[in-house]
Here is the input.
Amino acid sequence: MKPYQVLFLCTGNSARSILAEAYLNAAGQGRFAAYSAGSMPTGKVNPFAVELLAKHRIDAAGLRSKSWDEFARPEAPELDFVFTVCDNAAGEACPIWPGQPITAHWGVQDPARVQGADEHKRRAFLRAFSELSTRINLFMSLPIAKLDRLVLKKKLDEIGRAPAEEKSR
Here is the structure.
């Protein structure tokens, strides 16, 4: 069975989308092929993201900050799922993705915007990683092949809302 093709989008593609790509590729055990991109990529992966991935023994080799335009080209992978992980990317006009992927918004606070001491930044990256990995684990537990598109879309939207609702309680 061919792996599900998943794209994580953010504006800068330096932190959240990178963490999600690396985590899904590691945890998905070949069931998923994850990618990440940004609408306005910074051109570099945030060093705190690389440090966090290393701490969790997740390979960061080959990760790079890139434009989402790479995934709208004819030779791009045919995507099954596209997740926006920042509010800016969710509100932007996205390219047309090959494959008519199912989309959902899984907004996560941007750890790269945190100011202050390095330990404060590391905690912000860990929070973002924890939230993303929880959502990705929920996604991986879904019986994707057995759900129709509308039910799957609803479940993916629910995954994106759950942590935010818990925080507001």
User: Anything to note?
Assistant: The CA atoms of residues 81 and 102 lie 5 Å apart.
